[in-house]
Design a protein that fits this description.
Layout: E1 15-18, H1 34-39, H2 41-47, E2 51-54, E3 58-59, E4 71-75, H3 82-94, E5 98-103, H4 113-118, E6 132-134, E7 153-156, E8 161-164, H5 179-194, E9 199-202, H6 223-233, E10 241-245, H7 251-257, E11 267-269, H8 292-306, E12 313-314, H9 324-327, H10 335-347, E13 352-356, H11 376-387, H12 392-402, H13 439-444, H14 449-462, H15 465-468, E14 470-474, E15 481-487, E16 491-498, E17 504-505, E18 516-520, E19 529-530, E20 535-541
Parallel strand pairs: 1-2, 1-13, 2-5, 5-9, 9-10, 10-11, 12-13
Antiparallel strand pairs: 3-4, 6-8, 7-8, 14-15, 15-16, 16-20, 17-19, 18-20
Helix pairs in contact: 10-14, 11-12
Bound molecules: 1-O-alpha-D-glucopyranosyl-D-fructose and calcium ion.
The site of 1-O-alpha-D-glucopyranosyl-D-fructose has 14 residues, from loops.
């Protein structure tokens, strides 16, 4: 078990993300809940993870599945009660697992009581909790667009002003320039710390210091001042793990966010690698093939760039991304092999790995007609693009590949009805492949994707080099193979990944000819011709 009294305990941790709505339903309403998470703690313990990042569980009208919060200090009743939450913290802790809450500090729901007050009048003490600008009903303050389509400004006749929203209109942006807002948020965080929460994921934290007059959304000039104050007032009271979601973070900023002095956060969740398979300058819907050389160059830059002066988050999946095995692997013939290969690639690196629910089973994307989609981003984009004249079939191709709903189908626990997720029809369709892709079958099969993840997690605990080693890319020019070494003074690791469904020639470097194979996704590692999606990890101690 990790020793959480050590400042940097999270450097050796592996974190598992739970999207509560789709994890486990226990009361037969078709929606996952907190008792469902408690029920599955033993599964997570078997997997070996150290923390659960829980997507938002707070009171919410669920316009954006909980990323629109109407009360930060109450549990969404469909998920359960505060007692359920306290029990979850206690039961998780008993299994060596920390609970990590998702903090949405950039915006609230429009149903938050602060916002009800704020829109009553300009004199209301809560008015300045949000970002308002003057304008006339037909002329917004400027042409900024919201992340989920349409203008970023919404007019409120009662006050004769527009409020600013970087996401849906039901998600008004908080005004971080108001010290009262910041104090309210800090007190709220202290409330959850008191309940035994051991970490926080900070939603779109790079967007809190927006300056709409200058059309600035991410990376506003006051961002790092705000982060340092936030950290001082809350996280620095203990050894919390904190991870900031920052689509706009470059390396230089990531060094600030994850500075070793702990003045801001533990690490940053940045997405540069996740944008490589889209057309440059366009949106995620505008698909392009992945160039492996570009991916490798990107990973190398982050691995080297934060070594010794910051800390990486390692991930390929989350609740906003399509399933990685369908994206960069092969979700047909080589589903298991490619899922394991991708896991090897990411878990071999330096940083804290994140596993998104179902990734450890090699869960795949789903194909749904537009009427069955739930995600507002997907639905809005569909209507926008069709209205702009795009071919609906092309739009659906983008949705099949990239919709956030790919990640949000119910967790596949068994081959029973509704995949063991619920006794009734779930809120989102179950992927039909649950009959073969499910946890129960994989727990019984030592060769499964599940057990492969379990071994990867165990290796990180057993060999400090996974946490400490530096990073050196080999075969940089290959479009088929990703090969790298990790090195400390006394040991080295070699990680070899075949990204294709074809055999590939590869001569293992001389230093590793007699090295020990720690893991391979085939029964024995091949010596010179890698099999489709073959992945290997070798280890050797350096001679004194
Ligand atoms: O996501 C931030 C964000 O910018 C996303 O809207 C992202 O651009 C999109 O999902 C890519 O497909 C965070 C949360 O992770 C997301 O679930 C929320 O919807 C969003 O913030 C608003 O809170
Ligand atoms: Ca339920």
């Amino acid at each position: 078990m990790l020793d959480r009294t050590k400042p940097n305990w999270w450097k050796s941790a592996v974190i598992y993300q739970v999207y509560p709505k789709s994890f486990q339903d226990t009361n037969g309403d078709g929606v996952g809940d907190l008792p469902g998470v408690i029920q599955r703690l033993d599964y997570l313990k078997e997997l070996g993870v150290d923390g659960i990042w829980l997507s938002p569980i707070y009171a919410s009208p669920q316009v954006d599945n909980g990323y629109d919060i109407s009360d930060y200090q109450a549990i969404y009743p469909v998920f359960g009660t505060m007692e359920n939450f306290e029990e979850l913290v206690k039961e998780a802790k008993a299994r060596g697992i920390s609970i990590i809450l998702d903090l949405v500090l950039n915006h609230t729901s429009d149903q938050h009581r602060w916002f009800w007050e704020a829109k009553k009048s300009r004199e209301n003490p809560y008015h300045d909790y949000y970002v308002w600008r003057d304008g006339t009903p037909d002329c917004p303050p400027n042409d900024m667009m919201s992340g989920f389509g349409g203008s970023a400004w919404e007019y409120v006749p009662e006050v004769g002003q527009y409020y600013f929203h970087q996401f849906a209109p039901e998600q008004p942006d908080l005004n971080w320039d108001n010290p009262k807002v910041r104090r309210e948020l800090y007190d709220m965080i202290l409330f959850w710390m008191d309940k035994g929460v051991e970490g926080f994921r900070l939603d779109v934290i790079d967007q809190i210091a927006k300056e709409p007059d200058a059309k600035i959304t991410a990376n506003g000039p006051k961002l790092h001042d705000y982060l340092r104050e936030l950290s001082r007032e809350t996280f620095q009271k203990g050894y919390y793990v904190t991870v900031g979601e920052a689509w706009g973070a470059d390396l230089e900023r990531a060094r600030l966010y994850s500075a070793p002095d702990g003045s801001e956060l533990s690490m940053v969740f940045q997405f540069e690698h996740m944008g490589l398979d889209q057309q440059p300058g366009k949106e995620k819907w505008d698909l392009a093939p992945l160039s492996l050389t570009k991916l490798k160059a990107c990973m190398e830059r982050w691995q080297k760039g934060l070594h010794g002066c910051g800390w990486n988050s390692l991930f390929l999946d989350n609740h906003d991304l399509p399933r990685i095995v369908s994206r960069w692997g092969n979700d047909g013939e080589y589903r298991a092999e490619s899922a394991k290969m991708l896991a090897t690639m990411i878990h071999g690196m330096q940083g804290t790995p994140y596993i998104y629910q179902g990734e450890e089973l090699g869960m795949t994307n789903i194909k749904l007609p537009i009427e069955e989609h739930e995600d507002l981003e997907t639905i809005n984009m569909y209507h926008e693009r069709v209205a702009e004249g795009y071919d609906p079939e092309d739009v659906m191709r983008s949705i099949d590949a990239r919709s956030r709903d790919n990640a949000r189908t119910p967790m596949q626990w068994s081959d029973g009805e509704y995949a063991g997720f619920s006794a009734v029809k779930p809120w989102m369709p179950v992927n039909p492949n649950y009959l073969t892709v499910n946890a129960e079958a994989q727990q019984k099969d030592p060769q499964s994707v599940f057990h492969y993840y379990r071994r990867l997690i165990a290796l990180r605990k057993e060999y400090p080099i996974f946490v400490e080693g530096d990073f050196c890319l080999l075969e940089a020019e290959s479009e088929q193979l990703m090969v790298y070494t990790r090195n400390t003074d006394d040991a080295s690791l070699l990680v070899v990944c075949n990204f294709t469904g074809e055999p590939q020639n590869f001569a293992r470097p001389a230093d590793f000819q007699t090295a020990e194979c720690l893991l391979c996704n085939y029964e024995t590692p091949s010596a010179d011709t890698l099999r489709p999606y073959e992945a290997q990890i070798f280890y050797c101690q350096k001679k004194a």
